[in-house]
Write a structure and sequence with these properties.
mainly alpha, 9 helices, globular
């Protein structure tokens, strides 16, 4: 974000990003047009182009904004109970959406990962930050002897995020909770197999 923006400018920019993210989740990237964003955010065309040079810039900034939201708003996952709460929250969030739209970040990745090397890099960075967050919490659990010494935080982080992302996609496609719940339960069982 540009530190030269005023508080009002930062709020306007955040409103545009939030509106774009919501439109992309509901309609997809290709069906989200700048006029849609302008109307949804309640901004003029000149305001939109002031903050975002073009649609590609806007979408790349939405990717970063979504990655920030993931990194900043995941709860501490430093116990088995916390991991179970996280899984329950994932299930509740997507059940509440009736399994429409998928994962906010994962949906962007699915639509854009092959669009350009720069965009793929932004998406990889977002997933990397998410995995880092999981890895830190899992390492902390191992350091506090909640997990055995042979527990691999990298592998467990990959397993948890992969179960969530794949489960959300299946639940979205099939419009039912079982694939999501089952995939998360399997990942949680693997995590708990390393309990001391």
């Amino acid at each position: 974000m540009d530190d030269r923006l005023t508080a009002k400018g930062r709020a306007t920019r955040a409103r545009i990003l939030a509106a774009t993210a919501d439109l992309v989740r509901r309609k997809g990237v290709t069906r989200t047009q700048l006029d849609d964003v302008r109307r949804a955010a309640g901004v003029s065309g000149s305001q939109l182009t002031h903050y975002f040079h073009d649609k590609r810039t806007l979408i790349d900034d939405v990717i970063t904004w979504q990655a920030d939201a993931v990194a900043d708003h995941e709860p501490a996952l430093d116990s088995f109970a916390a991991w179970h709460r996280w899984a329950d929250q994932v299930v509740a969030r997507h059940t509440g959406r009736k399994f429409q739209g998928g994962c906010d970040f994962g949906s962007l990745a699915g639509q854009l990962v092959e669009s350009s090397p720069q965009t793929r890099s932004h998406l990889a960075d977002g997933y990397g930050r998410w995995l880092d967050r999981f890895r830190r919490d899992l390492s902390g659990m191992r350091d506090r002897a909640l997990l055995r010494a042979d527990a691999d935080p990298d592998a467990l982080a990959n397993s948890m995020l992969g179960a969530m992302q794949g489960g959300v996609l299946l639940a979205q496609t099939l419009r039912r909770v079982e694939p999501l719940r089952d995939s998360l339960d399997a990942a949680l069982a693997r995590l708990e197999s390393y309990a001391r």
